[in-house]
Amino acid sequence: MNPSPGRATAWTAAAGLLARWLGHRERIDRLMEQLPSSLAGAERARCQHLVYGVVRHAGRIEAALDRVVAHPPRFGTRAMLFLAGFELIENGADPGRAARIVHHAVGQAKVRASAAEGRLVNAVARKLAEALPGQVAPQVGAPAAALSEYYSHPVWLVHRWLATFGASHTHALLEWNQRPAPVYARFRGDVNHIRSSSSDSKELALPFQPTPWPGYFEVPSGRWAELEPLLRSGRAYVQDPSARLAVELLAPSPGEWVLDACAAPGGKSLLIADALAINALKEPIKGKNDDKSPNLPPNEEGTAPGGLVALDLPGERMERLQENMAHAGEVRVVLVPADLRTDPALMLRGRDLPITYPAVLVDAPCTNSGVMRHRIDVKWRLQSGDFQRHAMQQRVLLEAAAHLVAPGGRLVYSTCSIDPEENEGVVAAFLARPGAQFTLAGQVLSKPWESGHDGAGAFLLRRRG
Asked: Between helices 167-177 and 155-165, what is the axis angle to 10°?
């Protein structure tokens, strides 16, 4: 029996969201936020799985549809066909399951649309059941068009990656992007108190899996309920291990103040605060604040453990930053709503904060080309000119941040892009400026198919004393 149109299920909710995505290309994360609260638990997780699966494989499904449908149906019906297409990719190799997928889509079309559209979905879904499950992945060296269709990436982007990374690495990247992303959580504080559920220890026992990256754990499917209270209390933070690369290069030291110049939403800011707190415990520093420290009172006994100034644009980004930094603990944090490109020194001075810092991070907005496994709709929103546009903005931000670095200080430039134009190209142009006062002291480039986590670039630039 088919559910009534008024009762939201994972499948019907996914069909509604996907109709909007197909029609207007709204951002998937924002669409998911609009799910009704009545859709909870396993049903909500199933809805996300369906939506993400369709968006991840949209190019492959659309190509198959175009071969069997002369005129695309309306978006509501297309959404149901896309859902059936994804389910067939996922489970259609079993003829019995394929028949049930088709039958369910037809029933939904009759209820949600009309008998005529039910007949259309029946005819089309049966052809999809013959075409999609048996498709064979292209081999390394296949033409860009074949890679683009099967791995559901724009063909211009595949061409760009082939020219940049070569055939084998592009193939590995496309395969990587098509795998569902695991959920990683960073546990704050002493990770030795986190044990697997199989441990006999009386310390905190959690059903999370350790990873090669200290402090980061993988959250298995279906175990979100155990993570939620830890997130609310601030003991854990959902974060990909790639975030640690920039902060490790910055190496916040005990007693110093750090400026995060593009701080929102706050994941790296919180990581900096935690590093300052842990390092302060390892190497306590005594003494009053000097003239390079913000005009804030010292802690008890005159200790000066340093702190963090987190700067970003006012508005929604600052609100999200404030929420995340509420869990910063004992480390002193100052939030500054300001535009890095328009004289942030004036805003800093107005708050009795210094205008130069020994350590500055500028985690610049980018194309997100390194995090497409998590941000599944980025590939469909990107345009070929976006790389150059972002690189120009990144150079402006990097040059603005450079003015806030004290002599002898450290500046880390980072992105979540894997594209050289946004990484090495921006840094090379910055260092080639007339009178440049910085040298490149280190860099880390994460290529997802090699690192095993999201892609990123991070560069340590040191100002001459």
From this structure: 130
- Pick the closest to residue 307 from 274, 346, 336 (CA basis): 274
**Structural contact between residues 250 and 258, judged by C-beta atoms closer than 8 angstroms:** yes
Question: Are residues 84 and 128 in contact, defined by beta-carbon separation less than 8 angstroms?
Answer: yes
Q: Which residues contact 426 (CB under 8 A, 6 or more apart)?
A: 364, 391, 394, 395, 398, 413
Torsion of CA 65, 70, 75, 80, to 10 degrees: -40
96-155: pLDDT as tens digits: 999 999 999 999 999 999 999 999 999 999 999 999 999 999 999 999 999 999 999 999
Residues constituting the chain? 465
- Dist CA 438 CA 418 (whole Å): 23
Q: What does residue 35 show for φ and ψ, rounded to 5 degrees? A: -65, 140
Q: Is residue 13 within 8 Å of residue 40, measured between CB atoms?
A: no
Cα–Cα distance between 83 and 306 in angstroms, integer? Answer: 52
The two tokens of residue 384 are 């070929």
Q: What is the pLDDT of residues 336-354, one digit of tens each?
A: 999 999 988 888 998 989 8
User: CA separation (Å) from 33 to 37, 55, 273, 304?
Assistant: 10, 16, 29, 41
| Selection from 405, 416, 418, 328 nearest residue 361 by Cα | 405
Closest CA to 405 of 430, 434, 423: 430
Q: What residue type is assigned to position 67 of the chain?
A: R
Which residues, other chains included, contact 280 with Cβ-Cβ below 8 Å and sequence gap of 6+? Answer: 254, 255, 305, 306, 331
DSSP H helical ranges for 132-201? 144-150, 155-165, 167-177
- CA dist., res. 13 & res. 72, Å (int): 22
